[in-house]
């Protein structure tokens, strides 16, 4: 199976450490970078060209929604997942409007992220046709 | 701003501990201070916190100063006040609407509800960076737009805002709200396309407790939230037909019921609808109700696409850059080739896309001059191709002098590139005559007689004025459509008509069109 290159972004190191520990156990996932706010996320996404970026919704300096918008402006943009403490219609609506491809609850981070990664891996493995940018 | 950062101001250690323990349990990261003078206000930003929980305050005067500092930042986090402060809400130095009461002992759902609301409030602030700016630029299109907003704002007229995505439909809606008598009331927006169909009704009208699985508590809908203010229904074209019926009823009767409710609620809300879709086409296909369309289309406003007002580009870039610099981001300077490349780009995402690009450049190239090579590929293709062919890139024709250096550099660039191509460009822009007109012109040239009497000369025998004018109109419509390659929106621009007006006229004359809007 193709390796999925992941950039994870959150303002809490402890959270990132825990996420990384879990994700490292998944064979075909490679964490290529970690960012601590939206600004770092934009620069890292440009530099590392990951397949998927997982952004915390709320971070200092620049939050996940604004980072999503800016990342989606890059050439061949990555698949963007927004992770939010609050999961309801309005929060999802904001994420979708910003151009996020998926939304997960932070309270259930790994459990909700894994199927999103699998789905993305499947859609990429199948054919190269639709990048999920639109 | 961070949903996970919560400031706790509490002089009582035991209570502070219990507060922080609950916040920790809810997966938030509280920071506790005994009093606000422990904070170095020069080094923190109000929006670093999602909310500020305030319990025991020993020096109210000190706190009031802190409140005043908070108030300086628009959409600052709310104060969640414990009962000790409920009597002195007015003295905390912030707008009373930003003080939300908490019970003690804390109730988990109440705290969680307040924090959820605070998070949304922060997102709304983040989501509307241009909230008060109104549409910017000096092109004719934007001037017309501003005039229309001024015209319609004072009345409670329903407004339908049409235009491609990213043209700033919400900005226009906010500008209408801000210039209306309802400006002190709430502005609430709902993107009908982003809400699953089965949840839309409850989002709009709210629900009673137990109305459906998962409705654990009664909840207000957007109509109730917008009471006394303005409700923007964005992407109205994506609203499912059954909801359209319900919406129509609300617009007619100014009342509704919550889902699962029996009580009829009155509402005093101005509705603004917006869509990037062609609603007439949707009506024809059976996807949109004609009666609702007429109800909404009382005052249509057409948002100009960025490529139709590309001479606003330097001014827009500058305005966006200034705003970013004010927010503490690096300054963005575009080199002349970068500006020329952007002017040659088609901007399907319009001003929103421009905004995102400029902000991205500010992050990646702060305080440096951005060249065309720094732009993502899609922004360079048209320009690169034109340069490779040795042709002038399509450059905005500036009707009036632009006041910044960039525009001058831009103009030089144009001259440098285009001098030899002027003739070609001019002939390419010449109006295309229809075959019939060509024949007529040819006949006139051959026989020396006009193919038709001069349009504004009254013939001996008199004329049927209505028919005559209609014939002229039809001819002009056909020419405009032809020149716009069948794209109605562009043809409308050529005629200085609203697209909807043009569509009506085309229908009247039975003129076929290729619709390029979808």
Can you give a write-up of this model?
The complex is a heterodimer of chains A (134) and B (518). With 134 residues, chain A is of the alpha/beta class. Chain A has a single domain, classed as 3-Layer(aba) Sandwich (Rossmann fold), CATH 3.40.50.2300. Chain A has 5 helices and 5 strands; from the N terminus they run E-H-E-H-E-H-E-H-E-H. In chain A, helix 2 packs parallel to helix 3. Chain A is globular and about 35 Å long. The C terminus of chain A is likely disordered. Chain B is an alpha/beta fold. Chain B folds into 4 domains: 123 residues, Rossmann fold; 163 residues, Rossmann fold (3-Layer(aba) Sandwich); 119 residues, Helicase, Ruva Protein, domain 3 (Orthogonal Bundle), CATH 1.10.8; 65 residues, Arc Repressor Mutant, subunit A. In chain B, 44% of the residues lie in helices and 10% in strands. In chain B, the strands form 4 sheets. A 5-stranded parallel beta sheet of chain B has the order 2-1-3-4-5. A 5-stranded parallel beta sheet of chain B has the order 7-8-11-6-12. Chain B has a two-stranded antiparallel ribbon with strand order 9-10. In chain B, strand 9 and strand 10 form a beta hairpin. The longest helix of chain B has 20 residues. The two termini of chain B are 38 Å apart. About 11% of the residues of chain B have low confidence. Chains A and B meet through helix 2, helix 3 and helix 4 of A and helix 3 and helix 13 of B.
